[in-house]
Automatic annotation (TrEMBL):
This is Carbohydrate ABC transporter membrane protein 1, CUT1 family. It is found in: Cell membrane. Pfam families: BPD_transp_1. One of its GO terms (biological process) is transmembrane transport. Keywords: Cell membrane, Membrane, Transmembrane, Transmembrane helix, Transport. Gene3D superfamilies: MetI-like. The keyword Transmembrane helix applies. It comes from Rhizobium hainanense. The chain crosses the membrane at residues 9-27, 64-89, 101-121, 150-177, 198-219, 257-277. It is a multi-pass membrane protein. One of its GO terms (cellular component) is plasma membrane. Residues 64-278 form the ABC transmembrane type-1 domain. InterPro entries: ABC_transporter_permease, MetI-like, MetI-like_sf.
C-alpha cells in the first residue's frame, strides 16, 4: 500500500461526509431555487422568478434589514460584555475557572430552552422582569417587552447575548493567556496603571481574539431563526422577522421550497460577502496594531 493511497484512505471519510452533508444539499438548494417546488409532487423550472421575487418584494428587504440590525446589536453587546467579563476574570485567577464555567453554561443549552426561559422572564403578566419592577417600586416602567415593535428585537438580541457571552469571554481569556507576562511587568515598572496597561498592551494584543469573536458571532447571528421563532414568531408586526425565520416559514408554512431555496442561496452569498469583508478589515487591523 503506497503512501498516496494511505493518504486518500484517511481523507475518504471526511470527503464523503462533506459531500453528503454539505456539497449535495448545497447543489440541491441551488437547483431547487430555479423551480416552483412545493416539496412534494412534480415541479417545473421557473428560471430566475424566485430571485426576482426576493429582490422586488419589500417584505424580504425588511427581513434582511431586521437581520442586519439584529446582527449589529448582538455583535456589539456580546463582544463588549465578553471583553468586560474576561478582563475582570483575568485579574481574578482564584475564581476564574468557576466563573468561566458558569458563564459558559448558557451556551450549552438549546435555543428552544433559552427562548422559553426568556419568554417567561419577559411575559407581561407573570414575567420576572415586570415582577421585579413592581417589587422595586418601579411599576410605571412595566411593559409588554415582546409585544412592542420597538423593544421586541432588542430583547431577542439580549437573550442571544446572554446565551453566548460566556463563549466570547472564553475566547478573550485565551487571548489574555497568550499575552507575555514580561510586557505587563515592564509596564508596571515604568509606572503604567491598570487602565494604561489595558489600553496600550492588552487591547492591541487581543486583536486576534476580536477577529475570531466578531467573525463567529456575525456568521452565527446572520442565520439565526430559533430565538425569534420561539419568542415572537417574527412579530409583533414583523419586527423580529429575520431572514432565517423567513426561510423557515416559507419552507414549512407556505410549502414554497423553490422560493425558500432562493432565499437560502441569497443568504449564503450575503454571509460569504460579509465574512470576506470582515476578515480583510480585521486582519488589516491586526497588522496595523
Amino acid at each position: 500500500m503506497n503512501r498516496q493511497f494511505q493518504k486518500a484512505l484517511f481523507l475518504a471519510p471526511a470527503v464523503i461526509m462533506l459531500t453528503v452533508f454539505f456539497l449535495f444539499p448545497l447543489f440541491e438548494a441551488v437547483r431547487l431555487s430555479f423551480t416552483d417546488s412545493s416539496g412534494l409532487g412534480d415541479y417545473s423550472y421557473v428560471g430566475f422568478s424566485n430571485y426576482v421575487r426576493v429582490f422586488t418584494r419589500s417584505k424580504y428587504y425588511d427581513s434582511f434589514t431586521i437581520t442586519i440590525e439584529f446582527v449589529a446589536l448582538v455583535v456589539v453587546l456580546q463582544t463588549a460584555l465578553g471583553l468586560a467579563f474576561a478582563t475582570v476574570l483575568n485579574a481574578m485567577p482564584t475564581i476564574r475557572n468557576f466563573c468561566r464555567a458558569a458563564l459558559f453554561m448558557p451556551a450549552m443549552m438549546s435555543f428552544i430552552i433559552v427562548g422559553y426561559i426568556w419568554s417567561f422572564i419577559l411575559s407581561p403578566f407573570s414575567g420576572g422582569l415586570n415582577a421585579f419592577l413592581d417589587s422595586a417600586g418601579l411599576g410605571m416602567l412595566k411593559h409588554e417587552w415582546l409585544g412592542d415593535p420597538v423593544t421586541a428585537l432588542l430583547f431577542v438580541a439580549v437573550a442571544h447575548v446572554w446565551m453566548f457571552t460566556g463563549y466570547t469571554c472564553a475566547i478573550f481569556l485565551a487571548g489574555f493567556a497568550n499575552i507575555p507576562s514580561d510586557l505587563e511587568e515592564a509596564a508596571k515598572l515604568d509606572g503604567a496603571n491598570a487602565w494604561q496597561r489595558f489600553c496600550r498592551i492588552q487591547l492591541p494584543l487581543l486583536a486576534p481574539s476580536f477577529t475570531v469573536n466578531i467573525m463567529l458571532s456575525t456568521i452565527g447571528t446572520m442565520k439565526t431563526f430559533e430565538l425569534p421563532f420561539v419568542m415572537t414568531k417574527g412579530g409583533p408586526d414583523g419586527a423580529t422577522q429575520t431572514i432565517g425565520l423567513q426561510i423557515i416559514q416559507t419552507l414549512f408554512q407556505e410549502y414554497r421550497f423553490g422560493l425558500a431555496s432562493a432565499l437560502s442561496v441569497v443568504l449564503l452569498v450575503l454571509v460569504l460577502i460579509v465574512a470576506f469583508v470582515q476578515n480583510r478589515l480585521l486582519r488589516r487591523r491586526e497588522e496595523m496594531l
